[in-house]
Design goal:
3 helices; single chain; mainly alpha
Length: about 130
């Protein structure tokens, strides 16, 4: 004959096992979200470094362009072909600065929402949990 308390211990054991499974699933979800957050933070740091690099190129090229423009004005009062060379070099650096500025602007506009993937996954988790109620 079965022990009358064995049914209760089985229910309590199953309850503890269910709670343990629920906690393991919850921890797995949290771990996945933290890994996604870490990956997205690394991507954001890389995007920021790239943007700063292009900003430096744009500023450096603009500075050189301004220097060359000043040199061109000085050389304009000297012999004839120095002016044309100064204008060409100055134009090249301004063109480089413009290209770098356009690349930077395009990168800044096309970048995604910071931590967008993590926020989307958390929103899906909330929807799933609310749907189970």
């Amino acid at each position: 004959m079965a022990d009358p308390g064995s049914g209760r211990h089985g229910l309590v054991g199953n309850l503890f096992q269910s709670v343990g499974n629920l906690l393991a699933t919850g921890l797995g979800i949290v771990r996945t979200r933290l890994e996604l957050l870490s990956t997205e933070l690394q991507e954001e740091v890389q995007r920021a470094a790239e943007a700063l690099t292009w900003a430096f190129v744009a500023l450096f090229a603009a500075g050189i362009g301004l220097f060359m423009a000043g040199l061109t004005v000085i050389l304009a009062f000297w012999e004839t072909h120095r002016v044309l060379a100064g204008i060409c070099v100055t134009g090249f650096f301004f063109l480089l600065a413009a290209i770098a500025g356009l690349v930077l602007r395009g990168r800044m506009r096309s970048r995604g929402r910071p931590l967008g993937g993590t926020l989307e996954e958390l929103a899906r988790d909330v929807e799933r949990l609310e749907g189970e109620r």
